[in-house]
Amino acid sequence: MSDYRTIEVTRTGGVGRLAFDRPDAHNALNERMAEELADAVRALVSDDDVRCIAVTANGPVFNTGADLTTLSGDGSDESRLRTLAGTLHEFVGGLVRAPKPVVTGVNGVAAGGGLGPAVCGDVVLVAESARFEFAYPRIGLSGDGGSTYLLPRLVGLRRAQELAFRDEPVDAEEAVKIGLATEAVPDDALDDRLAAEAERLADGPTAAYAATKRLLVESYDRPLGAQLAAETDAIAGLTNTEDFARGHAAFGDDEEPEFVGE
Question: How far apart are CA 206 and CA 172, in angstroms?
Fold first, then answer.
């Protein structure tokens, strides 16, 4: 993996792990971090040896969004924010569209531009002390980082409106209850739980996961008939994979299949 200054990227087996790494700045996003994130997700997605992507953060905070110390607080920030948001969106979009599972481990506060990356995983693990915050109204801005796309899909429009307009913190237990997160984990167990979940998915049928992920995301843009046709194409096409052959054989022998991701 490449050397980065604001993020840490490692690979263990089939898991590519990406961590925000500006703990002294609450892992806030500056232009360099956004660029490194966009570069890293492209590399992880294109690496066939990476079968699951894990996203987390170093330090006690997940990500607090844009680094406000780099902004002036007036119209001169327009071009800077366009660049920052656009590059951040390459990262989030890459994770949402990645043809492999994504697991996020939210170890602390996820706010503003850090909210979208926190909840965009196919599985979202959250430390019991962590919390989610929309935060944008506090500085007179609207949501970015995929938050306005993800929130209505995860929790429904009315709850998304509540989160955005009331802007009240959501703790780990509530996040699981309303669908922002998958599982709350004791703080000292998050790293191990994230690694175990990522390894489990990396050992799974990657092509099938990719097809299912694509079907779920694209279902919002299709009428029922088109979605059913897409399901037919996907499931029929997967019969040509090695994983299907292995899964079918293992099922017949009442054994656990060993998938190879192709």
Answer: 29
